Amino acid sequence: MSLAHTTVLLCAWGSLQAFEIVEKENIFQRTPCPAFLMFDNAAYLADMSFELPCHCKPEDVSTVVWYYQKHLGSSHTVVLTDFDGRLLTEAAHVRVGSSMLVRFSIRMFSLLVFRAQSEDSGLYFCGTRKGDYFYAYDVDIQSHEGMVATFKDKGQEPLPDEYYGSLHVFTTFWEWTPCDRCGVHGEQWRLGLCYLQNPGLSPRYLKTLPDVVSCGSRAVPRKLRVKTRYHTPELLIQSCLVSCEKKTQVQKGVLTIYNYVSKLGSRPWLSQVPIQFHQQRLGHGLIISCPGARPEHAVAWDKDHQPLYRTQYLKGVNRSMRVFIDHGNHLHIRFTQLSDRGIYYCWRQGLRIAGFRLGVTSRGRYPASLSDPETRTAVELTLVAYLLITAVFVTIHVCRCCCYSFRHCPNFSAHPLLQL
């Protein structure tokens, strides 16, 4: 390609980028801010990442600040801003259980919250540094604790709707995910979150349907929210089978080169996906994550050539499960055994993308640390048992002291059966 053609293409690309920026600015010019601040209701599942766009702002405002309140009118307001040169947060760098102050980022006036938790539920305001609000959201993060899994292939049905007078509690399902595997039998699922309908909701909260909001919305009075606590999120699962897309024949050429270099006439083993190696000590737990996967993705796990279907390995299917898949698509192995050796393959959105080769060894001394889940569990059980024994011991002696004080303590030594 000549220098003139390259210059023309670069100019055209710059014009397209400038046009895109102008279009985004025109969106704010065409969208007036409401005179009375309203709240958009949005519901997500815990561990999901979500984005809140600032749909309107005055033309003279070049930067925005986001504010967070647990309840409307609360005296405690958290300021979320990037003014001091914060580095952009990436989802892959966010640790589980970290504070929201290290799990957010502001990009193009939109607020991004990574791996949201139930305590992140509340009201989010888009405004200026002076405290002027333009747009607001009512965010409901529903916990996956107690989530109900329904398997259509077994003839199971979702939870029935609940009625309490004028209160209607029901489940709203998302779209089906793609099949999590291709070329073999796989699974797909759809997530359902708790919603309710009631005519007595606050008019300040915008609703997609009349009088319908998520169960954890701030528009729901506390007396009604208590009635919805047993209606947990749902996961509807069914089997599927799709064909794989045609792939390029690059791997065959690579294998031919390996055959030629080895001069043995037999093909060496070459994995089609990246493989990560890990050595795990016998008897300790392990959690494996699929690279780039989020809770809303279709993720599947295989051990060597054996599929680990959610019908058998989903968390909660069996209380005594040692190997299971949680609702965030992570693979858990509790108390690793020698039989756990092998390659664990990860599928994402119907494509196998990575492998995890696990080795189990009994050698080496494992240092005890409170950061280890097994160590924490052992310490907690020991403390609980010690407190229980102490409580029983103290209770017996207090009762004996009370009996002797009031002269009503029975004399067991005088019982005829005991004298025998």
Please explain how this structure is put together:
The protein is α+β, with helices and mostly antiparallel strands and 420 residues long. It folds into 3 domains: 24-142, Immunoglobulin-like (Sandwich), CATH 2.60.40; 148-241, no CATH class; 271-361, Immunoglobulin-like, CATH 2.60.40. 21% of the residues lie in helices and 30% in strands. It has 6 helices and 23 strands. The protein has helices spanning 3-30, 222-225, 250-262, 310-313, 373-406, 416-419; strands at residues 39-45, 50-52, 65-69, 77-80, 104-107, 110-113, 122-127, 133-142, 148-151, 162-164, 167-173, 185-197, 205-206, 212-214, 234-241, 275-281, 286-288, 299-303, 306-308, 323-325, 331-333, 342-348, 351-361. The strands form 5 sheets. The chain has a 6-stranded mixed beta sheet, with no helix packed on it. Strands 9, 10, 11, 12, 14 and 15 form a 6-stranded mixed beta sheet that branches. A hairpin with a 2-residue loop joins strand 22 and strand 23. The model is unreliable at 6-10, 15-28 and 84-94 (pLDDT under 50). Residues 268-346 form the Ig-like domain. Belongs to the FAM187 family. It comes from Myodes glareolus. Keywords: Glycoprotein, Membrane, Signal, Transmembrane, Transmembrane helix. It is a single-pass type I membrane protein.
